[in-house]
């Protein structure tokens, strides 16, 4: 049965609707303070551990680092500018946010991007949904790892509503619109990826926070890497959703916010 708009799943997994247009948001501050990266660590649940290991094994090192930067930027943005979203380190939504951030580009991995006719966001969202609910897709068929209990394995499975929240956000993370609504997870992944990829929304994160995140997860030429991935997809799939973003490649390469760390 579909969860109603006022159900606990709506708030617990980030389905609370927000304006799609970032310009319609009302930040709590115009001068966000520094958020030490040590104060916004990744969650440490069995589910997060399983998905992190899988993402690390599939994504390029550059894309994995980008995903971690997006996670930290998103927490900093939510904590400083949108505290009413209740996305903070240790909060119930932190795990769903981490899963969204770490898997949002899973569709760009080698063998995945060119293994489907779907836009990478759509294939990636569906794949994320599958692996969140089916641990066997991310682990070997051999015996359980030493010390892993049946209880831990059970905890490593997402709730259906959680997997759907992650999938929705991945589907729409590059679907930037100025009308309608999006989920909290979708709005946050858009804000954080736009910051890392093209330098937008820089006013939502303190510069020292950005510097500390980049020190831990270096960009190492991320702009050129990301541009190459998008060009590869649009060469293989001219109809890909990313083709609708006019001038995207130029925006990526003209990322003035991140230029000093490139």
Automatic annotation (TrEMBL):
Which InterPro entries does this entry report, sorted A to Z? Cyanamide_hydratase_HD, HD/PDEase_dom
The residues covered by the HD/PDEase domain are 59-207
SUPFAM superfamilies under this entry?
HD-domain/PDEase-like
**By its UniProt entry, which NCBIfam families does this protein fall under?**
cyanamide_fam
PANTHER family referenced in this protein's UniProt entry, alphabetically: CYANAMIDE HYDRATASE DDI2-RELATED
Q: What is this protein identified as?
A: HD/PDEase domain-containing protein
Organism listed in the record:
Endocarpon pusillum
């Amino acid at each position: 049965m579909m969860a109603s708009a006022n159900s606990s799943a709506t708030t617990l997994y980030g389905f609370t609707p927000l304006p799609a247009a970032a310009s319609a948001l009302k930040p709590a501050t115009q001068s966000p303070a520094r958020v030490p990266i040590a104060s916004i660590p990744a969650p440490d649940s069995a589910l997060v551990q399983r998905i992190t290991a899988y993402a690390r094994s599939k994504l390029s090192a550059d894309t994995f680092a980008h995903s971690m930067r997006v996670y930290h930027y998103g927490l900093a943005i939510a904590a400083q500018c949108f505290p009413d979203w209740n996305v903070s380190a240790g909060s119930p939504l932190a795990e769903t946010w981490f899963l969204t951030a770490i898997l949002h580009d899973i569709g760009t991995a080698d063998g995945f991007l060119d293994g489907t006719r779907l836009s990478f966001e759509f294939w990636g969202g569906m794949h994320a949904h599958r692996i969140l609910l089916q641990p066997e897709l991310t682990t070997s068929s051999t015996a359980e790892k030493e010390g892993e209990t049946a209880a831990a394995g059970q905890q490593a499975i997402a709730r259906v509503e959680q997997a759907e929240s992650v999938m929705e956000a991945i589907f729409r993370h590059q679907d930037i619109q100025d009308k309608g609504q999006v989920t909290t997870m979708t709005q946050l992944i858009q804000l954080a990826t736009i910051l890392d990829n093209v330098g937008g929304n820089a006013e939502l994160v303190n510069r020292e926070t950005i510097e500390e995140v980049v020190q831990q997860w270096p960009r190492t030429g991320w702009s050129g890497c990301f541009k190459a991935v998008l060009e590869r997809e649009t060469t293989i799939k001219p109809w890909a959703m990313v083709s609708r973003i006019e001038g995207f490649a130029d925006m990526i390469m003209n990322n003035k916010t991140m230029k000093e760390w490139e």
